[in-house]
Amino acid sequence: MLQRAIALTAALLAAATMRVALGQSARETSPQLADVPAGEFSMGSDIGGSWEKPVHKVRTPAFEIGERPVSNGEFRRFRSDHSSPGDNADSAPVTGVSWEDAHAYCEWLSQASGATYSIPSEARWERAVRGGLEQKKYPWGDEPEPDGSERRNAYGVYAVGHGLWEWTADWYSADYYAHSPANDPTGPADGVYRVLRGGGYRNDPASATVYTRGSARPETKSERITFRVMRASGGAAAPTTVTRAAPPPTPRQTQPVQTAAAAQPKQSPPPTPAAQPKPATKPAPAPNPTPAAGARPGGPVAVTGVSFAEEGGEGVVKIATDGVARFKAFALKAPDRLVVDILDGTGSLRPVTGTVQVGRVGIKTVRHSQFQATPPIFRIVIDLQSAKDYRVEAWPNELRIKLKP
3-state class of 206 per DSSP? Predict the structure, then answer.
């Protein structure tokens, strides 16, 4: 009898120890969540791109969402060998993860914690990030943070300031807002791309707004993409559409842009995570001399060189290519700089990432790097002492960015 009592006591102690261990494991695994109340908000923006219009009313139930994106440390509890291509510190947001990786992490987290987690839908992401502010550009108001620093919004959510795109659960469609249901929408039934939200603050603060939409193929892994998790109040998750289909992707506009320093170009709906500048408001003077005949936008090109020269008192940045380049150019402030994106462009120069020191005619430096891999975008950033008028000339094997002194 005594031995049976001792055995029963030992079993009870073991079960209690197991419950404590499971509780600790769940606490270690579960992310810090912010509560988002049920309610209605105005989704989209009338000052954004066509793919971010029209503004429409959306209602969501109460839910909880990660205060921050999933960190490297949290993700490595799921995959211990993961290494982020960007900042690999345990506390930094995880990067280099596909949509499928994010979905798999949510399934693992659900099993490990006993709650049900998912990637947030696009609508819930925007509601959480807006923090209750209606039709503002940022989670805190209409003015960007000059240094890209993070700030917690009224719901306790840190978003936009960390400088990365975030996966959402939805398939992407450029015209989805035109027929989106008002009650807790979850995107189209199928598609080719998944919606990205958040904007690339590190490269273009103007794109990092609460309404900016981007997209990427679900298998994409990038140092500029992360994700956060959500769960509905009560532990249930919003449905996630995982069906694959293959409607044709939204075509991108290929018309080159010429603009002045204070202007920004029009852009068609992006199928990939790229900056989305605002429409042009002031045309630049016509290029002089006129580019050679046949200098029209072409297909994929390689950037073979980036250099600077002074011609007739103007500063001229020359981008050598192995074909006629398609491009988008736009100016940014705080600090003043000019950005030129070579669409379908890759860098064949070595190193691909580099800086040309200038220090004259109001130009500080010219920086270049492979901004995006799929589809490729090669980016040139011209750091300025102050805003300048400029024009871009497309030649058969060269772009010339001419800046007035």
Answer: helix
